[in-house]
Amino acid sequence: MVPQFMFATGIENSNPTIQNGTVRMDEMAKCGHYEHWQKDFDLVQELGICFLRYGPPIHTTFLGPDKYDWTFADATFQDLLRRNIAPIVDLCHFGVPDWIGNFQNPDFPVLFAQYAKAFAQRFPWVQLYTPVNEMYICAQFSALFGWWNEQLATHTAFVTALKHIVKANVLAMHAILEVRADAIFIQSESSEYFHAENPAAIRPAEIMNARRFLSLDLNYGRRVNSEMYEYLMDNGMTRNEYHFFMHNNLKHHCIMGNDYYKTNEHRVSADGSTKASGEIFGYHVITSQYHDRYRLPVMHTETNLWQGSVGDEAVNWLWKEWANVLRVRNDGVPVVGFTWYSLTDQVDWDTALRRNHGSVNPLGLYDLNRNIRPVGKAYKQLIADWSHVLPAHSICLQVPIVMPQESHRIWAQKQEAQMEQASADESTAQANAAPAE
Q: Does 435 or 350 have the greater pLDDT score?
């Protein structure tokens, strides 16, 4: 086991549908990862990174109940194992296969748990998981804003999507733990805050600031406040569904991953409408709020910024976020990792994947030609400067990670021992069954 601070990046694998399910916004395809995955893994190593937020494309891997195409996953995950890069496996990133439909489907949680277990059985050396990425944002964009997947815009649709998504996450954690008892789950949820722009906006802002916690409250089995309980009940959640979340607390297996961008803070008007406020509180204040609520180790699981016209905007944002991470840590919060997301530039996130324009967003550590950006050089230097300092500085910054190659050996030894025991048991049973002479 190697206790270490987890410097990470990610390979963007969003894949929601738009235009009533007719267009799949597959970021791995848009960013060229299917063609350049080996080069992308080379770049991860060039940066000195050992942890990668990564997952197989669910829509081309999960073909039906108990039916999978592991071709791409086998190639990529075998290579990650060979390189000893620890994946934080992102199994569902904003989309589901066409045959499941969307997040209104009540069968999704059980089906997804089966998929998660099948993955864990095929890749037993994997320890770190984000079963469902950004559960709150996924439900909000799909069923409250009407942007993706089901493209609905009602509170009932939002609650339905949310309860199915979080239940899928919880059931997947249970399923993975059946295979890998020491699995660690890093939630990766958006950390939000809503600012009232005038006194009349205080009430709607309060409601939004309560609602932002719903996905993690349910996931961690934390009782919601009375107003949010009424909100859930009024919009289709049953008492039995709510009790499921309260009785399936796997908090002790979790790290609270939180994502922070300049767009995560919002200004609220009296009529409840919102617009971006830009960075006001920042990562330090908002993460402290989330940690005070859940009391879990924290990993900063996503941030980025466009390189900009001057060319140093992303570099300055990296250092600002890192300074916030250190401030949170110095306040006593056990921060265990940091992530610039993603490895390469992304495509069409300037419209939140609502428009299939092919617009390149210059916010990666590398551009889409796989040339390093200034922020990539800065992150590489940051990792080199800090990677050997933080683990030794405080036990709060250490997580006992079993790296892939070590885990593979442990698993092989365990399987060999189980086979030997099974063989011995069979021999004993045969001996006991033999007729006495």
A: 350
